[in-house]
Amino acid sequence: MNKYWTSVRNTQMQRIGIEVFGGNGTIETFSSLPRLYRDAMVTESWEGTHNVLCAQLHRDMGRYELHRPFLSQLEMRIAASAHPLKAVLRQRCGALLAQAALIAADRSESATVAMRTWIDQAMVTYQALCLVELAASQRDGGTEPLPDDVVALLLHLHPMRRDAERAVWWPSMPKPAPAD
């Protein structure tokens, strides 16, 4: 999950950085961003393309239920939190577990597409939890705490879909018919 997530986000951040500089962002004598963008594209393929990584995660979910320890760990860490968004994070974990069960049970090739949505939602939930824990450690350490609005904004920008079965399929993609 981390290989997929970080490579996708790395490329997106490089593109945003290039956009900030406009036309100058594409000129290598002005900025190192074009080289970093090319390197980010290589990184995306180095460990396996996105589809390969998603397919592997789908197989691992089906065979070994590797999503369960990940979600169990998230649930334990959320339970230990006193953050106001604790209930929202708990709800997201429950939805992720329900979606994972649907994806793992689907043996079709196209279920790999559903993995992208699931990974995106799982990683945003994980990031939000990490921010919650960081904010708590900053409060305890006497430093300026991370604003709770940052966590709320992250969760607002990446909402969980309410219908678990539809959430695992891209909205514009019809669910495949069973093979004869």
Short description:
The chain is mostly helical. 71% of the residues lie in helices and 0% in strands. The chain folds into 2 domains: 1-48; 51-172.
Produce the secondary structure layout:
Blueprint: H1 2-21, H2 33-46, H3 50-64, H4 67-79, H5 86-105, H6 111-141, H7 148-157, H8 164-167
Helix pairs in contact: 1-2, 3-5, 3-6, 4-5, 5-6, 6-7
Would you give an account of this structure?
The protein has helices spanning 2-21, 33-46, 50-64, 67-79, 86-105, 111-141, 148-157, 164-167. It is an all-alpha fold and 180 residues long. The chain folds into two domains: 1-48; 51-172. Helix 1 (2-21) packs antiparallel against helix 2 (33-46). The chain is flat.
Low-confidence stretches: 163-176
**Tally of structural domains:** 2
The major beta sheet can be summarized as:
none
Terminal-residue CA separation: 33 Å
Q: State the order of secondary-structure elements, H for helix, E for strand.
A: HHHHHHHH
Number of helices: 8
Shape label: flat
> How much is the average pLDDT?
84
Please bin the fraction of helical residues. over 70%
**DSSP strand tally:** 0
Rg value: 19 Å
Structural class: mainly alpha
Strand content: under 5%
